[in-house]
Structures are given as structure tokens and as C-alpha cells.
Amino acid sequence: MDLLRPGLTYRELAEQAWKIPDRFYDRRYPSIIHGVGLHGETPLVAHQGDFDKYSRDGVLEPGMVVSVESYIGEVDAMDGVKLEEQVVITETGIAKMSRYPYSDTLLDRET
Fold first, then answer.
1. 54: which of 13, 27, 34, 79 lies 20 to 30 Å off by Cα?
2. DSSP letter (8 states) at residue 86
3. What is the pLDDT of residues 9-64, one digit of tens each?
4. Helix/strand/coil for 10
5. How many helices (H) and strands (E) in the chain?
6. By three-state DSSP, how is residue 84 classified?
7. Contact 62, 89 (CB under 8 A)
8. Could you tell me what percentage of the chain is helix, strand and coil, using 3-state DSSP and rounding each to the nearest 5?
9. Which residues are paired to 44 by β-bridges?
10. What are the backbone dihedrals phi and psi of residue 34, each rounded to the nearest 5 degrees, phi first?
11. N-to-C CA span, the chain
């Protein structure tokens, strides 16, 4: 989420975003961020490998509300991990809309 800022193009975001490890690539969501609303979740910014198939270029602007979304799992695994956070693009970066914390265990951080 630290990459998100006004003026960043969708393609730049796709190029700079975390790269999905090969073992998770077949069980992923293609999107890094998507819009919030009643109309097809525009913009949809896909990971670099999916960008040309699912995305059109554009620019993040102050006032945009987007969901930062990820899901990965291994092909033969029983489960995976899905995280999603809604943010507002501000003049200087983002403001999270939720105050609910993620579990340090899920984020692989020491508690």
C-alpha cells in the first residue's frame, strides 16, 4: 500500500508491486487494486503479468476510493490467504478507511 499516491499510473503500480512467487501464481487474484461501487469495480489494476489482459492505464487521483486486494494459495493446498483494505487516495498518499487490525500471525510478523 506504500506505493499508492496521486500521479502514479496504473501500469507503474503493476510494475512496482510485489511479485507473486511462482508457486502461488496459478491461484491468485489478478488485481492489485480495484474501484469501489456498483459498476464493474473500475479501475481494475492487475498484476504485471495480467495487466494487458485485464487493465487499462490511468492515473491515481486524490479522492479516489480503491480496494487493495490480494489472494494467493498453492495449487494443491486446502486454503489460501485473502487480504483486502479500502483506502482513499489523498494529496500525499492514502488514508485507510478501516481501523480493524490484521493479525501479525497472518502477516508473518513476530508478535
1. 79
2. E
3. 999 999 999 999 999 989 888 899 999 877 667 899 999 999 999 999 999 999 99
4. helix
5. 2, 5
6. strand
7. yes
8. 15, 30, 55
9. 34
10. -145, 155
11. 21
